[in-house]
Amino acid sequence: MTAMTDTSAGAPGDPGSGGAGAGEDRKLTRTEASDAVSDLGWRYILGWLRASVPAASLAEAAEVATRAAAAAGPDADATLWLDVRHDQVILALQDGATAEVTAREARLARLITAALRDAGYATEPGTSGTGPRSLQMLEIAIDAMDISSIRPFWRAVLGYVSEPGRDGPEDALVDPVGQGPAIWFQQMDEPRPQRNRIHFDVSVPHDEAKARIDAALSAGGRLLADDEAPAFWVLADAEGNEACITTWQGRDPVT
Fold first, then answer.
1. 253 preceded by cis ω (within 30°)?
2. In the CATH scheme, what is the homologous superfamily, with its name and number, of domain 1-129?
3. Which of 18, 20, 98, 218 sits a CA distance of 20 to 30 A from 195?
4. What architecture does CATH give domain 137-246?
5. What is the pLDDT of residues 11-52, one digit of tens each?
6. % of the chain with per-residue pLDDT over 70
């Protein structure tokens, strides 16, 4: 699939289609999702389509949010999340019933972008110095010997819930109001008391990863592993505390 380069309607059912088609509920692969929106200033990050719109005031940000919701139409409540600040609006699209990106979300990203451009607003990923930082999503990974025995504790203490359709004893947990980072659990083969057992996963746009890694290394960090790149790189601070920079790339099955 090639990247789309205009905001016109495509064929019904295509990821970037301007009209609802029979394939609207088709889950997109990570590559398809990224290709469908990258030219629009959106980025696929951790199962979401996300974009930032700069604003000069809270009133202007509210106007951006209103225009985005209107462009999404009746699908807004089921797909569109908005984080409204005085200097920007973060737009996020995901199928709320399945926690997936489908052809519908790709279509809505195109419609929202076109509506905002008509009003003089730009959607952007915040990379290359266009914002205070790039778009990103944060996860906290907890290493455990018996995931099913500790997951209920973290669910209760954080007030978190399971993602739609993912309520297994070892599945990740998410904030039901979308404010806190997701929590996921990594199976350990044996206890490792000498190593931190909670680390951060920082999911960034695929074209932001190198800059973020370079900045971390320049700030005294070390690269511990890159054998799974571009899916993720493992870094550590000067005392060995670990964090991963992750992207969507390298995760789709090879066909």
1. no
2. Transcriptional coactivator/pterin dehydratase (3.30.1360.20)
3. 218
4. Roll (3.10)
5. 334 454 444 444 889 999 999 999 999 999 999 999 999 999
6. 88
